[in-house]
Amino acid sequence: MVETFRAMVIDTVDGKPAAGFREVSLKDLPDNDVLVEIAYSTLNYKDGLAITGKGRIARRTPLIAGIDISGTVVESRAAEWKPGDKVIVNGWGLSETEPGAYGRYQRVKAEWLIPLPDAFSLQQAMAIGTAGYTSALCVDALEKWGAIKPGEGEVLVTGAAGGVGSVAIALLSARGYKVTASTGRPETHPYLESLGATNFIDRAELQQKGGPLQKERWTGGVDSVGSTTLANALAQTVRGGAIAACGLAGGADLPATVLPHILRSVALIGVDSVMAPNEQRLSAWSRLARDLDKTKLDAITTVEPMSKLPELAQAIIDGQIRGRVVIDVTA
Fold first, then answer.
1. pLDDT for the residue numbered 193
2. What is the mean pLDDT of residues 225-240?
3. Among 135, 141, 269, 323, who pairs with 300 as Cys (CB 3.0-4.6 Å)?
4. Looking at residue 2, what is its pLDDT?
5. 181: part of which helix (H) or strand (E)?
6. Which long-range contacts does 181-188 make (Cβ < 8 Å, 24+ apart)?
7. What is the pLDDT of residues 44-64, one digit of tens each?
8. What CATH number was assigned to the domain covering residues 130-270?
9. Any bridge partners for residue 303, and if so which?
10. What is the mean pLDDT of residues 183-196?
11. Residue 258's pLDDT is what?
């Protein structure tokens, strides 16, 4: 086990967040109970914001970036984990308040870990990552609410070609839902059809200001965009339907009214993947293990070296990333 390793670290320069590679020592890691040797991480929109400095993600600096971990336990003071265990960490403040995944090792709290499902390799788990796990949380939430039923009506997925959207389409189609994908990139339609999308709506239609109550269309939806897109999705949702909201790629505002909620009983379900309790996490990963077609997972996945993080971060902010990017932290 090496004593030092390269990591992507967020710092503050002239009062602004800035990220770059530097050598980190095992002694620099927090004194948490479990030392994990990281094999892979992911690239998420939040990672892009952190690395490019376009968003103040790290609430303290310096801080190692990266919100997802898959790897192997090396040392453990916790009885429930032992060396050799294959584990996953999603969220829990990594890259925000806690040192994250873009390095060879990290010490984490025992309660943050969940076991790697037998259905997946460490690389596949990060092809899923926070984006896919969040998609599963959203589908769980919609089904638990009772808003959607297989074969009945249309389910909307916004930001469809992104990580959350891609996995959401694959999960919903596997359960027999009719999925409409919202995207501004017509060239991604064949890709989204391969995941199970049966219809498309141009994202520009959902970005235009619309009335507070519009023609009913969606029985439910998974939204990672927010702002006007979410407002229109709610205004177009059928009576008793629901939208699970998990992102803000289009903005954190919500220019909407209460009318869909009080006149059509439409529900807005907030989904937080960062601090979700382990019961919800295990349920989401069980859904992924059961319903996610590995051939579809492979189709949406690329593996890139950690050395390319700066350019990849800019690409995801610019909307140029399709599907899921796995980060090999050893390269």
1. 96
2. 98
3. 323
4. 82
5. strand 178-183
6. 181/157, 182/156, 182/157, 182/158, 182/206, 182/225, 182/229, 183/159, 185/161, 188/160, 188/161, 188/322
7. 989 999 999 998 899 999 999
8. 3.40.50.720
9. 326
10. 94
11. 98
With CA atoms as reference, report the closest residue to 135 among 163, 173, 95: 163
Q: Please say whether the beta carbons of 128 and 164 come within 8 A.
A: no
- Model confidence at 40, pLDDT cuts 50, 70, 90, reads very high
**What is the pTM for the complete model shown?**
0.91
Q: Where in the chain is the domain with CATH 3.90.180.10?
A: 4-116+300-328
- Read off the pLDDT band of 232 (50, 70, 90): very high
Query: Span 110-125, mean pLDDT?
Result: 97
Q: 215: burial class by Cβ within 10 Å (0-12, 13-18, 19+)? A: exposed
Give residue 272's region: left, alpha or beta (phi > 0; psi -120 to 50). beta
Please state, in angstroms and rounded to a whole number, the distance separating the CA atoms of residues 247 and 244.
10
Closest CA to 159 of 190, 184, 126: 184
The CATH label, of 3.10.290.10, 3.30.2090.10, 3.30.470.20, 3.90.180.10, for the domain at 4-116+300-328 is: 3.90.180.10
- Gyration radius from the chain CA atoms: 20
User: Where is 218: in which H helix or E strand?
Assistant: strand 218-223
Contacts for 186 with CB less than 8 Å, ≥ 6 apart = none
Q: Where in the chain is the domain with CATH 3.40.50.720?
A: 130-270
175 touches 163 (CB < 8 A): no
What is the 8-class DSSP label of residue 153? S
Instruction: Tell me the C-alpha distance between 239 and 153, whole Å.
Output: 12
User: Confidence class of residue 92 from pLDDT cuts 50, 70 and 90?
Assistant: very high
